[in-house]
Amino acid sequence: MSNKVDKKLLSLIFLLIFIFNIHYFSIFSYSHENHLKLEKKSEVENIKIKSSTNGFISSDDIELFWFIQISDTQFIWYDVDKIAGFYKFLNETYKEITPLFIFHTGDIVDADYGLGQDKIEWENYRQALDDNNMNATIYMDVIGNHDAANDPYFTYFLNYSMMGRTFNTTQYSFNKSFTFGKYAFIGLDTAKNSYNLFEFGFQGFLSSEELDWYESELEKYKEFDKIFVFGHHPPSYPPFYQIISEESLSGRDFYELNEEYNVSFYLSGHVHENSFYYFNNLLSITTSNFDQGGGTYRIISLDHNRLSTSIEYVGDWPQAIITNPPGEEYLFGDLNVIEEKLRVLAWDPKGIVSVKWSLFDIKNEYQLINWKPLEKISTEKPLWESSLNFTNRGNLLIKVKIEGGSGEIVKELRYNLSENNNNNSTISFLVFVLLVTGLVSIAIISNHYLPNKPNESEKLERKKS
Questions:
Q1: If both were cysteines, with which of 68, 344, 376, 384 could 99 make a disulfide (CB 3.0 to 4.6 Å apart)?
Q2: Domains in the chain, number
Q3: Angle in degrees, 0-180, between the axes of helices 80-88 and 119-131, rounded to the nearest 10
Q4: What are phi and psi for residue 462, nearest 5 degrees?
Q5: pLDDT tens sequence across 175-229
Q6: Which helix H or strand E contains 129, and what residues bound it?
Q7: Cα–Cα distance between 2 and 241 in angstroms, integer?
Q8: How far apart, in whole angstroms, are the C-alpha atoms of residue 82 and residue 79?
Q9: Over the stretch 100-113, which tens digit does the pLDDT of each residue have?
Q10: pTM
Q11: Does any domain span residue 439?
């Protein structure tokens, strides 16, 4: 009886998954109306990006750059208000934050729930880019599963997307060099040219040919300080999302190549969630669909090769990101902030009035340090800085208050602050020693001072005697 119930329950679960995918993700073999003319261009996959003064600060003690990621604009192209929000992002947000570049990680269009490409969506996207003077120097995109649905040759992406139309490619790389280091950026095509029902909704795919190209690019950049990779699908996201990988000619799959060449960061979309996690030593970052919250975008900064990131929304000002101490460290381990600098990037179209910081207990009940100002380091750059000179330890909360002409926001960092890593190791060793000593002491006391109860064999020996 229980086996029958289990089978029925299992069948019901799979049926629900099937219905969910039919409604949101599935594709059928509709005839493809290939009414687009693809103009073949010389294949350019290693792209030369023009230098720009935007998005970085370099000085004797500051090594910092920042850029913006967006993803999954698929739900906006038939909504006038949402399209207006995208225009505002490309115009106001970009001009105020002045990032190194904007990177769109795919599912540009919805393609009628994945049933087939809709030319109007692509035309609206292209028009938005053109109207706001976007070009391949400051705006990049990669293909998502919806962008490839029922279009096995990726014709629409190659004709309407920024990178497809400019360079006639779905995979490419570029790099940025500063006085403080060299950084590589690689865009991957994780969309498959044909999907079954399950794959379309969940899985990405990298072929041997795509991996051969990826490996050759990684080889070029193996001596660079950091490598950023962008693709639509996350490498792994429970329960079903993952990238299915074939092997390159060298016999390595996507995950092995990332480890071999020390790929630092992988940015994606697809799951319509904001997440930040390690997978096989690779920091994986996903960003939700653009239309959430009126226009979701992610700011990413690298300060002395340490990453921070912050989710923001179009039209909300002021905006800010704490670049140091880095989010990468406070999310994934204890952090020693002795003699650390606090650095904050802050923006407001109406101007920034002040940036201050304070220290609180982890429950936000007690203020341990009064508000202290951060100093703007340059009239031309949006960076404020201060020394983090405190000796408090334990679970603490650092707050940064940014006051601008448009209003006020507070950014928070939660820490478990210890004296230093050596002290952590020492304390752990001492605890271990004390534990072992305690167990040994208990054993000695039990042996020598507590009465021993004879066991059964001892009782038999006594009876015989």
A1: 68
A2: 2
A3: 30
A4: -65, -40
A5: 999 999 999 999 999 999 888 878 888 999 999 999 999 999 999 999 999 999 9
A6: helix 119-131
A7: 31
A8: 5
A9: 999 999 999 999 99
A10: 0.80
A11: no
